[in-house]
Amino acid sequence: MVVAFRWFVPLLASVAVVTPCWSQETPRPLREFARRQRLLVGTAVGYSELVDDPRFAQTAARECNLVTTENELKWGIVHPAPDTFDFTRADAIVDFARANRMKVRGHTLVWHQQNPAWLTNGTFTRDELIALLRTHIHTVAGRYRRRIKHWDVVNEAFDDASGTLRDTLWLRGIGPEYIELAFQFAHEAAPRAKLFYNDFLIELIGPKFDAVYALVADLKARGVPIHGVGFQAHAFLSTSCTTCFDQMATRFKQIADLGLEVAITELDVPIVQPTTPAALADQAVLYDTALAACLSVRRCRTFVMWGLTDRYSWIPSFFPTMDDALILDRDYAPKPAYFALRDRLAGPRR
Ligand code: G3I
Fold first, then answer.
1. If you measure from the C-alpha of residue 114 to the centroid of ligand 1, how many angstroms do you get, rounded to a whole number?
2. Is 293:250 a contact under the CB 8 Å cutoff?
3. Protein residue with its CA nearest to atom 28 in ligand 1
4. In this structure, are residues 140 and 110 in contact, taking their beta carbons and an 8 Å threshold?
5. Residue 329: CB partners within 8 Å, gap ≥ 6?
6. To pair with 176 at 20 to 30 A between CA atoms, which of 26, 197, 265, 284?
7. Which residues contact 223 (CB under 8 A, 6 or more apart)?
8. Smallest Cα–Cα separation from 21: which of 11, 5, 32, 8?
9. pLDDT tens column, 84-115
10. Residues 251, 252, 255, 258, CA torsion sign
């Protein structure tokens, strides 16, 4: 692949203002094209790369108008002991976003993973667990009520492929009502925030999508404050990935027809190693298909990738035979997927 340009590295690694310092030949960034489509284009951001790698901060600020907190607002980091909240890392990401005119997507208020040991090993009555959930959500969403306007409130409540609610500490301790309680608590804490249910593999036809559809339709019909559904879109989790996004636009429309927003929240497209030019071309098609699906639905205004550069991705440590899932390579050079997104965004306005 021809590397069409270089991005210059700022000398200062700062989570505050990132000084634009790229060369004249550098093309317009994705966020500029996204603005004309009235779209938020974002990346997950981890604290470490943000503070340790100036190129990462520079590139995220240049290309994106939204960041999602990758891990830093999960219970395990932000709520390490029953009476202790630690916002150091999350604040750094939120401050970075504000300094660079980016929105923040809060991720996530209720999940079954990355919870602190005091919570997972504790013994609580139902009322105690509800009180813990309320305090957590009021404290976290409340702190950022002016700065975080989009939340992945409940994450992955359904089993991996079925339509069954996942067996989690929340389901066991509270019952299925934990979902609506989480949305109510989030709305109390941040009344102007848009609140999303977020999950993976729901771009496919199948029992999982049906179950999520039924859940959110019921919540909406009963007046629970839910505003949208986040489609994570980790492409490879599907077994038939050349076609895994073919139904995405249809799924989006079904949710939008309920009066809810849709968002792509964690897109990545890993490649079974070794990476070849053909695999990069296929990857570009999948990124483009996802973006086209979002642009085809008026209620889709958010397109978030689970990272920007192959230098930082959750994939190889979880799936050692896969890698290179993102739109920039390890040296921050744009891959075919980057150009596919740029060309799609530069196309006709929706
Ligand atoms: O912070 C510790 C560090 O102190 C320690 O030395 C190191 C040793 O392994 O682990 C570090 O924690 C890791 C953490 O990421 C931060 O890098 C955890 O082990 C690791 O399990 C954790 O992985 C995260 C994963 O969620 C947890 O399941 C990934 O970064 C994060 O990208 C991923 O994100 C999830 C979304 O939240 C929900 N949807 C799926 C997505 C991918 O799994």
1. 8
2. no
3. 113
4. no
5. 309, 310, 335
6. 265
7. none
8. 8
9. 999 999 999 999 999 999 999 999 999 999 99
10. negative
| CA 77 to ligand 1: nearest atom | 1
Q: Tokens in use for 152?
A: 């992945």
Q: Which atom of ligand 1 is nearest to the CA of 306?
A: 32
Residues within a 6 A CB radius of ligand 1: 70-71, 113-114, 155, 232, 266, 314
Q: In 128-157, which positions are buried (b, 16+ CB within 10 angstroms) versus exposed (e)?
A: ebbebbbebbbebbebbeebbebbbbbbbb
- Assigned token pair, 165: 């609610």
Question: pLDDT tens across 11-31, in order?
Answer: 233 444 454 444 445 579 999
User: 147-202: per-residue pLDDT in tens?
Assistant: 999 999 999 999 988 899 999 999 999 999 999 999 999 999 999 999 999 999 99
Q: How many CB atoms lie within 10 A of CB 159?
A: 14
**Cβ 66 vs Cβ 103: under 8 Å:** yes
**Dihedrals phi, psi of 102, to nearest 5 degrees:** -115, 145
pTM above 0.85, yes or no: yes
Which tokens hold the place of 297? 């639905």
- In the structure encoding, which two tokens stand for residue 135, read together? 């305090």
| Exposure of 265 in the CB half-sphere (CA atoms within 13 A) | 33
